[in-house]
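Notes, Module 5: Reading structure tokens.

Key idea: the token line is not a picture. It is a compressed description, and you learn to read it the same way you learned to read a sequence, by spotting repeated patterns. We will look at two proteins. The first is printed below with its tokens.
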Amino acid sequence: MIGILLRQRLRRDRVQLLLWIAGTAAMAGAAVSGVTQSYGDLEARTAVLATVMANPVILMFRGLPSGAGEEQVALFLILPFLAMLAAFMSAFLAVRHTRAEEEQGRAELIAATPAGRVAPLAATILHGALANILLGLLVGLVYVASGYPAAGSWVAGLAAASVGLCFLGVGLLAAQLMRTSRGANSLAVWILVATYVMAGLGNALGTPSDDLTRMESSWLAWLSPFGWAENTRPFADDAIWPALLAIGTGAVFVGIAFAVQAVRDLGEGVVPQRRGRTWAGRSLGSPIGLVWTLTRGSIVGWAIGGLLTGLLATSLASVVNELGTRIEAVQTLFEALSQTGGLEAGMVVIFYIIVGVLASCAAVQTVCRARQEEAHGTGEPVLASAVDRVRWLGGYLVIALIAVLLTVAAAIAGSMLGAAGGDWSLVEDAVVAGVGQAVAACVFLAVTALVFVLAPRATIVVGWMLVLIAVLIGLFGPLFSMPEWLTSLSPFAQTPTLDAGAVDVKGGWWLVTTAAVGAAASLALMRRRELHPSG
């Protein structure tokens, strides 16, 4: 039975896993060419690492320096992102094939067969393990094909896969603890973000070497699977045991997940549901109020992320200006990323691309909630009342727009705090960049809504994959020397910016038109769209 269930999972996830794994391998390969072109000589790499050591806050967003060699710098720049992609893939896979199956009622049908309740969980573990093994092998092959030492290449692949295996266990345990797939995914993501930040802080608080090319992590990084992966130090120490520590931790979580499943009722979770109020508030009397109640927690989370990103955008500007003044390659790189002439303004633009990504995620998640409500059957009672289809979907679009505006507004407020006592001219750059990224996020809002109307079952996959692809080509495209025509396809790269005191609109009007037409078309087509309650 395990073999049958495993084949079913592989067939069901073949497209998603292909995108996750191929995208991770492509990012690993792109880092090689990016480092070769941007930091081709030892002097430039040494200067970059010295600047990083002098400003350890940068280590919160990168890896752990292990030397000034080309392959060592490549892993310093990209390894945390490879591990993060593996972690997201594994956690979502675990929840999708366990808790989500219980929500849809399919797990109960399988449990009534000879497969029972253990075989599906075992098949999911094998499924996730195979996906991470393939991801690790492809990452290692990419570096071997690039001419890097074989030992370090395979350690790099193992490091990324080990974090994925750890979060496979995290996702499985979260699925046992929480009663809904949404709650399980949220718990897994918050653990992922917390451990990523913990590893970054651990690196920032570490001890640099005398030649400023290597950093020894503090104890805090050793509490995080990301810290374990980085301390494998591919192409330097090639240590395997920290990766085994991550794999072992994942195995412990898997064992706990089996134990919890054995004692809980099907469809229930360990964490009890929060009891609702006896009397509903006035806001629940309208579709917009209902959507806000359902999504406000996640929206606040995205807004907090925007606030922190905006704060860093202006507070780190002077650091980047110093770095660009010393290293010409860095100045060229930032100008390519931001497409502006000044380093400090370019730093703001780059950070606001991240704000745009956060705002887009908030919008896509809100629109995807409409699909979840429809699939779970909870949207049908609302539509059975005086609320028609257009008004129902319109509520999600309005709240998604509010989520975008709140995230961007929080980022601008953070930039004001970061500029206090410094260069207030950067706030103007932040406002222009923030408005532009809000428009870009609205494009994803409209396109996801259109997919929801035309192909509802593809809403969640298409919505999130569009954001991921746009991030890869818009944010990492210039860094990895992708063709200009390709990077220009990303809405994040077409937003207005402030250049020499004048606003460069770029593709801003096209973004506004696309967002408006897409939203209007989704509402118009929703009039005749039938419900598709099945997941």
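Here is the second protein, with the sequence above and the tokens below, as before.
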Amino acid sequence: MKEEYDVIVIGGGSSGAGTARDCAMRGLKTILLERNDFGSGTSGACAGMISGGVKYLNEPEMVAMCTKEVVYLQNIAKHIVFRLPIITAIVNEIDLKARTSSKTDYSKYTAERGASPIMLLSTEEARKIEPKLSDKILLAAYLDEMFIDPFRLCIINALSAKNHGADVRNYTEVIDVIREGNQVKGVKVKDKKTGKVEEIYGKFVANCAGPWVSRISKMAGIDQPLRLNKGSHVVFDRRVTGTAVVCRALDGRSAYLFPHFSSTILGTTAWDIFGDPDDVETSYDDVEYLISSMEVAVPSIRDARVVRTYCGVRPMLPEWWISEDDATRNFKLIDHEERDGVKGYVSFEGGKLVIYRIMAEKMTDLICQKLGIEAECRTHIEPLPGSESDMDIELWAEEYTMPTHTVGRIATRHGSNTPEILKLAQENPEYKSTVCRCESLTEAEIRYSLRTEFATNLSDLRRRVRLGMGPCQSTFCNYKALTIMADELNLTPEQVHRDAIGFAQERWKGKCVILRGDQVSEEEINQAIYASIANYDNLLDLWKED
């Protein structure tokens, strides 16, 4: 007799991992399937801001829901949530009217989540706080917003799902949906590491695949269009401003500059796309649009060193004949039995990072209702892994004889689980060695992630522990990390080189579009290191697919 799950969750982004967690916490036999790595799609391609934003004031229900979810996240994921002060630079009369009219309406929401009210500042006052602001701005507004590490959010939801009994698998691609008559019975999957194909059966299939929802639904014989929208970002090598800066972009939308860990993120575009979401790339025009827009508020931004670009695809509701600015970022939970006459199949349309938890709650409510199970949601109460208790960084640093800065950086990723990593380093003093100087990343943390967080390659480690996300973009740290990974996972030399080349290729995709001036010379040095020291110019055939 074939094993059957109560729920098969497709998609390891925030909504999918959140749904798997909620289902498992309510006692459902659950499996989570992600075709690449957790957080490697839309969730990981955002800037991490968790708020409804002034942009959605015309949707009071949406802003109120976002506000409520921010408060929950501050409690259940406190170790990866942080606050940023934001200065909104008002650059012209049109901007002045729009920004000041929203001040009172939005302040009530900031108060609910413990943030500062919106305060209007003169140009001089604003430049005292952020000296890099242009002296030509008319006025400024100050507030603060909450941010989160989206990669860590996805992985700790997946870990929580596993801790509550769910089976959790990344690099497992759904290649078909098993349907008999009007009943979805399960899915056919392919293990992308081994090539093994198998069938997995379940009472319900929950499609949480974001921009790829339509593709999965097509496998089930269901037409489910979405409005896909591309958002590109530019990453600088350091914190180029002391505060976040928001201004009106050249086309009237908003552009933002967010300090983010040891870097700064400039975003975002909002272009509708009509092709395969797997094919989206940041273009030269995307970069110029963003830099030119922010240059009005922060004139020196063009002189800052860009190290990378990245983009993602928003899975918006299929609403047309309205601009992206007016399109809702709310979500719909689709019961395909009710809409399409197909049983055992549910999906999401739309949504955004900050409301992932309530999306998961609503989907789990529906599945429990259909299964006749009464179990209350606890995901807004029970802490995620790493937020179970308070952190004492100075005490830990002293107890385990580690630098306070290093311990602090580990804690921003692992929270109350940090002592587990420090204990590993204490028991194995050689594990205290620094692998990535940009991120204060130690060998102990890499080994911990490989052992406990489903990481199997360099890209996974980038998302787990920020390997290669600093100024050098992995030019130096990848070799050390590969050695550790080969030891932990018992990899062959061919597997090690294949991963190194694949990782370099992925880094290149984010760098090639921004190369200009001195950055061309810098990249030539990087290429020389790969070719002369690692000999990768003669090993490229290893990277090709079998």
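Summary for the second protein:
- The chain has a mean pLDDT of 92.
- The chain has 18 helices and 19 strands.
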